[in-house]
Design goal:
The complex is a heterodimer of chains A (523) and B (688). Helix content of chain A is 28%, strand content 22%. Chain A is built from 11 helices and 19 strands. In chain A, the strands form 4 sheets. Chain A has a 7-stranded antiparallel beta sheet. Chain A has a 4-stranded mixed beta sheet with strand order 8-9-10-11, covered by helices on one side. The N and C termini of chain A lie far apart (59 Å). Chain B has 5 domains: 111 residues, ATPase, nucleotide binding domain (Nucleotidyltransferase, domain 5), CATH 3.30.420; 137 residues, Dna Topoisomerase Vi A Subunit, Chain: A, domain 2 (3-Layer(aba) Sandwich), CATH 3.40.1360; 233 residues, conserved archaeal protein q6m145 (Nucleotidyltransferase, domain 5, 2-Layer Sandwich); 106 residues, no CATH class; 65 residues, no CATH class. Chain B is built from 16 helices and 36 strands. In chain B, the strands form 9 sheets. In chain B, strands 13, 14, 15, 20, 23, 24, 29, 32, 35 and 36 form a 10-stranded mixed beta sheet that branches. In chain B, strands 3-2-1-4-11-12 form a 6-stranded mixed beta sheet. In chain B, helix 2 packs across helix 7 and helix 10 packs across helix 12. The chains are: A alpha+beta (523), B alpha/beta (688). Chains A and B meet through helix 1, helix 2, helix 5, helix 6 and helix 7 of A and helix 3 and helix 12 of B.
């Protein structure tokens, strides 16, 4: 009887802990500024035991925060040992290598106390609207140009804000109030979660999370291992070519299914780029383990136990493991291709179960106007908006690929009417790029076709930092055709080939076609 | 003498009918007849008429809520519909939000658009965001010939920025109406004049798609009622909580989709007013879902975001968005029919998928093999198998037990009692989580609320859910099991008009806004007057606001009368107070954006008087006992069982106990007391 009851209570507590972090993420979503964060849900929230092991994480818009969040707290605790922390303290950093991969993401950690005793930690992160520097472009050649770096420090001490930090931020970012709003949102979501956790422990008469944590971690680890044991053992390799910035990039992976886990090694992948498309190791880990989980165990929640079953190695200072001070702003260009590379590895042992390649990393169209744009008059309207361009997903063995749907990112589109209401831009088209999906028994998803002009007689600029797969298509699988490559041109005919920022002259129009997904099977 | 009033609520699992006459109420609850929903409803009506010894001609009012529109969207059994849309945007409807609602599921599917690509016709025309014509409306005569050739039954028109300038949509609508007699036409600027093209087009297409079906259903129903001798007016319940006439229902059938839950919120709001309850959590649990709604000051909050026809395990994001006036509530897949299973970590999961009315829970004995919440309650002894749904459906305990053991108990090494207790706990945890998240979103505090619990499943779970949320008091109204239908009879006649007009607080275009609000008020008043039969009208106006750059809006009430420039400041202050209440901070130097304006005109709701008179208390005595499993002690024990009809006003009893009525059972847990108020409601209170 006792064991049945204990088992039931543990289930309830686990369920409740997940509800606490979902609530934490929800508070953050409602307070976030900036379209990327709110439309994409580019944020994350998690709970940790006193040793810094992640016990539960909210399922939010982007897998890029999966492992990054799991390891971020440990980095904090090395610098701020748990016994030195007090109620009301909040720690912060935007370190790309020890946070979530670029300076735009602030990670905060709040220690949770019950009756003056430390019971665990809450961490949260979101993509801030601006961090100074060059903005959301890939042109920087070092992280120093990419914006303000905030090393691990206290943002709040015993409930009092670190005014020095806020003063520095205020004078180094383009939207100081919104950035402050985002940071305060992080504080408040951790705070809400802390109160919930304390109430939950009191209700069940628990003093800490340790026993529950051990149960969650070990159950998840065991389930993940059980899923791995169902796979054939061995090592499989795959490679993928991408456009890159200054030179083409080759990604190489060797995936080994072992007795108790899966290891992915990126040996042989291209060296780091001079420009900001490098994927820091923590971000590489996140997308690798996301890809593995999609295939192996989609239903097992992310926590320290399930994540430790997948390990990743990569050569130092490669494109998937760049060292400081490499530029990393547009790290998703590379990172978001990794799940499909993992799929390529699984194709042989799990033939007939793995989808074809898709467009991969999403295109972020950074559109700006104003007197600063080359060729603009002094009275040109100043604006700075983004639009999300989404390609097609790869075909599945028994279903077509989804059209204009992001994968692996969870980002959604921004409505045309919203973008037009906040800028002088006008979209002439936003529809399927017909025939962009690869042919096959199952058809690849279609990419989007977007055509934009200004309603004013003024030029505007377009940052192409994130546009890949313009020379290297998403490959079909099992005899299916490749997806069509993406393409960026002006209506007047000029092709915009690179990842830099271009000017669309007054009276001209930008035409961007996103890549289609690969097909599956012979038609 | 006051004439009898009748309400009929067709839900996903049950059809409820309520008749009120001469201070008495009769009700019936029967399984929904999905293939011809009016049959179940007419059978239910016949039952209550017989019980009340009345004839159709004695009925003075009939209020009807139905899931028919919802079902036709779910089953994609609506009209052959075409969409005329701005050239370059024909795929908006299919591209949707362009995101996956489930990150790890590679087999994910997106909802099929209501209008296939070959019936989405691009039209040369373009408005700018400011409402200026950039490209004049081109000819649509060729499209009209194609529509004729294709024999489409309904047409939606959705052009970009029609919420600011509707002239192109209106013109296209006129041309279509002239050339296509008998074809239903929906303009996006009329059904949903709000910014965000996907939601607006989706709403317009959903309206067009269900229009022919609803029009014919409503006509058929009206004729059948007439044939049966009903001579009373027929009103339809809308998702926004107001009644509407047949004529308006035919024009905007998409507004009928979420009518049952709206009726429940009206009931709770009325009870809150009558019992002076400032903060209420309305908890409605039926066969398929649970609905949780916070009510402050006797008025439920309104919203305009809703999703119908979810296709993938009832997941949020897998359905079609419609922007219509709805009562703000959270609805989760937690009902009597919700299916329990183990996930790959052997954790018990309950819902959101449901066994529905067919085959229903395993204990229905109709072929259902999956264990459900109702099966758990039957095994635990909380439901009398002989008295379920008024005794119309005899439940099979053994089948419930087998299903629970097979899917939950045996794999976990638990016996049937513990496994059933686990299902009960988890479904209550799910509802508690939903209530907490919703409280955060709306800036409420559950622990300050009184719970009002109704719907067939709620009274069994109410007190335990209340305890999880830190609440001390629960009210289970008279006729709790048919609460939504009871709510229908309290609903005002109402209509809401919305328009988008964006401006910032430092650029508050007061002339334009007043002009807009005036025209909206006129439009709403004209529609309501048609059904109000001369009753006094009231107006509620709100605006949706946000900090510029955010994506989440908060609704703020507008003062009565003409707005002045000074109101921008006042509205900002109100917005910030609400923002601070929800999120704990203000961001004082960011401008505030006004986005969407709404005007709701309605008659006054029908309240009862003197319902909380003092009554003399007396201890009730139980006539029967039931053996029930108690997870606290881990044992089966005898619980006193009271029949609700035996409990007079003033009666009191202490938990643990069961209070049974024909269509539901109230569980009074250990540590709770139950009393009967003057109006007959059960009041459960947790001992301090």
């Amino acid at each position: 009887m006792k064991t049945q009851k204990r088992q039931l209570i543990r289930q309830i507590l686990w369920n409740r802990l997940i509800a606490v972090v979902e609530e934490q993420a929800n508070v953050l979503l409602k307070t976030a500024f900036g379209p990327i964060t709110r439309e994409a849900g580019d944020l994350s929230a998690g709970v940790y035991d006193t040793k810094g092991r992640m016990l539960a994480q909210a399922v939010t818009g982007t897998p890029g925060h999966v492992n990054t969040m799991a390891t971020a707290v440990a980095h904090f605790l090395e610098r701020f040992p748990p016994h030195t922390l007090k109620p009301g303290d909040v720690l912060v950093t935007n370190d790309p290598w020890m946070g979530t991969g670029h300076l735009f993401d602030f990670v905060t950690v709040t220690p949770a106390f019950l009756k003056k005793k430390l019971i665990g930690f809450f961490a949260s992160t979101c993509h801030d609207i601006d961090i100074g520097g060059r903005g959301f472009v890939a042109e920087a050649t070092s992280v120093y140009e990419e914006g303000l770096y905030v090393p691990h420090m206290k943002m709040m001490e015993a409930g009092k804000p670190n005014e020095t930090l806020f003063a520095i931020l205020k004078n180094n970012v383009r939207e100081p109030m919104q950035v402050r709003g985002d940071l305060l949102g992080l504080v408040s979501c951790n705070e809400v979660a802390t109160r919930r956790l304390a109430a939950m422990l009191e209700e069940f008469g628990l003093r800490d999370l340790d026993t529950l944590g051990e149960y969650i971690v070990s159950t998840s680890r065991e389930s993940m291992r059980a899923a791995v044991r169902k796979l054939p053992r061995g090592t499989w390799i795959a490679s993928m070519m991408l456009d890159g910035y200054e030179a083409p990039i080759e990604l190489k992976a060797a995936l080994t299914v072992g007795k108790d886990g899966i290891h992915v090694d990126y040996a042989g992948s291209s060296p780091a780029s001079r420009f900001g498309i490098n994927s820091p190791k923590c971000y590489t880990d996140a997308y690798t383990s996301f890809g593995v989980k999609c295939i192996v165990a989609p239903g097992i929640p992310n926590n320290a136990g399930s994540l430790e079953v997948v390990t990743v190695s990569a050569p130092e200072d490669s494109i998937v493991h760049p060292l400081r001070p490499r530029a990393v702003t547009a790290r998703h260009v590379i990172g978001q291709m990794l799940p499909e590379l993992v799929f390529d590895c699984f194709d042989e042992p799990l033939a007939g179960k793995v989808p074809a390649e898709g467009a991969g990393s999403m295109w972020v169209l950074g559109l700006s106007g104003g007197p600063q744009v080359e060729g603009a008059k002094p009275d040109a309207t100043r604006f700075n908006v983004i639009s999300i361009g989404i390609g097609g997903m790869g075909a599945r063995p028994a279903k077509d690929g989804l059209s204009t749907t992001a994968f692996p990112s969870g980002v959604g589109a921004i409505p045309v009417e919203i973008t037009e209401a906040t800028s002088p831009l006008l979209f002439r088209r936003r529809e399927f790029a017909d025939g962009s999906g690869g042919t096959g028994r199952q058809q690849g998803g279609e990419g989007a076709l977007i055509e934009i002009e200004s309603t004013e007689d003024a030029p505007f600029s377009i940052a192409c930092a994130t546009f890949d797969r313009r020379r290297n298509p998403a490959r079909g699988r099992a005899g299916g055709g490749n997806g069509r490559v993406g393409r960026v041109t002006l209506a007047s005919g000029k092709v915009l080939p690179g990842k830099e920022t271009y000017v669309v002259p007054a009276g001209d129009r930008l035409i961007a076609e996103m890549p289609g997904g690969g097909g599956y099977g012979k038609k | 003498m006051e004439r009898a009033r009748l309400a009929a609520d067709i839900g996903g699992t049950f059809t409820d009918v309520v008749l009120e006459h001469a201070g008495k109420r009769h009700s019936s609850k029967i399984l929904t007849t999905p293939r011809a929903p009016e049959e179940g409803m007419l059978a239910g009506i016949a039952q209550v008429l017989a019980a009340a010894a009345l004839h159709p001609a004695d009925i003075g009012l009939l209020v009807h809520g139905t899931t028919l529109a919802t079902n036709s969207l779910i089953e994609r059994k609506g009209a052959k519909t075409a969409l005329l849309t701005t050239a370059g945007f024909r795929d908006v409807l299919e591209m949707g939000y362009e995101k996956r609602y489930e990150h790890y599921d590679l087999e994910l599917e997106l909802p099929t658009p209501l209008v296939p690509r070959e019936l989405r016709f691009p039209v040369e025309e373009r408005m700018t965001a400011k409402g200026e014509i950039r490209t004049p409306l081109g000819s649509i005569s060729e499209i009209i010939s194609k529509l004729k050739a294709e024999r489409v039954e309904a047409v939606a028109v959705g052009f970009l920025h029609s919420y600011v300038n509707d002239s192109h949509e209106k013109r296209a609508g006129e041309l279509l109406a002239k050339s296509l007699p008998g074809v239903s036409i929906t303009l996006s600027c009329e059904v949903c004049p709000e910014i965000r093209e996907y939601e607006r087009f989706s709403t317009a297409c959903a309206n067009a798609y269900v229009q022919p079906l609803m029009a014919s259903y409503l006509a058929r129903l009206a004729a059948e009622l007439k044939r049966r001798g009903f001579a009373c007016p027929l009103f339809l319940m809308t998702s926004g909580g107001g009644l509407t006439t047949l004529e308006t229902a035919r024009r905007f059938p998409v507004r009928l989709v979420e009518s049952g839950p709206a009726g429940g919120a009206i009931l709770s709001a009325g009870l809150a007013r009558e019992n002076n309850l400032q903060e209420v959590l309305s908890f409605d649990m039926g066969g398929t879902t649970a609905k949780i709604c916070y009510i402050e000051g006797g008025r439920p909050e309104q919203s305009r975001k809703f999703e119908v026809a979810r296709i993938w395990r009832n997941l949020k994001g897998s359905g079609l968005p419609v922007r219509i006036p709805v009562t703000e509530m959270v609805e989760i897949g937690a009902g009597g029919g919700s299916i329990a299973r183990l996930d790959e970590l052997k954790r018990i999961q309950v819902g959101p998928s449901s066994a529905g009315a067919e085959p229903g829970p395993a204990c229905y004995g109709r072929g259902g093999a999956e264990p459900t919440v109702t099966d758990a309650n039957v095994v635990l002894g909380r439901i009398d198998p002989a008295a379920f749904a008024g005794g119309t459906l005899r439940l099979n305990i053994q089948k419930a037990k087998n299903a629970i053991l097979a899917r939950i108990g045996s794999p976990l090494g638990m016996d049937a009692d513990w496994a059933a207790a686990g299902i009960g706990e988890i479904v209550e945890e799910n509802m508690a989580s939903a209530a907490r998240v919703h409280a955060i979103e709306r800036g409420k505090a559950a622990e300050r609320c009184t719970m009002i619990a109704f719907g067939g499943g709620a009274p069994l779970h109410a007190a335990r859910l209340a305890a999880k949320l830190g609440m001390r008091k629960v009210l289970v109204p008279v006729d709790a099991s048919v609460g939504s239908a009871v709510g229908f009879l309290r609903a005002p006649v109402a209509f809401e008009v919305v328009r988008s007009l964006r401006c910032l607080d430092d650029d508050f275009s007061v002339l334009k806004i007043n002009e807009l609000l005036n025209s909206m008020h006129k439009e709403a008043t004209a529609i309501v007057s048609a059904g109000a039969l001369g009753a006094k009208l009231q107006t509620h106006r709100t605006v949706e606001m946000r900090y510029e750059g955010q994506g989440h809006e908060i609704s703020v009430p507008l003062p009565a009368g003409k707005l002045s420039a000074a109101d921008a400041k006042k509205l900002r202050a109100q917005y910030e107070a609400r923002y601070e209440r929800q999120f704990g901070l203000r961001i004082s130097d960011v401008p505030v954006e006004f986005l969407t304006w709404s005007v709701n005109v309605s008659t006054f709701a029908v309240d009862k008087k003197n319902s909380n008179a003092k009554v003399k208390s007396s201890k009730a005595t139980a006539r029967q006992e039931r053996t029930v499993f108690d997870p606290v002690s881990g044992k089966r024990g005898s619980l006193p069982m009271f029949l609700r009809r035996d409990l007079a006003a003033g009666a009191t009893l202490a938990g643990p106990a069961l209070v049974v009525e024909p269509q539901t059972t109230t569980l009074v847990p250990r540590g709770w007391r139950c009393g009967v108020a003057a109006a007959g409601h059960l009041i459960l209170e947790r001992k301090p």
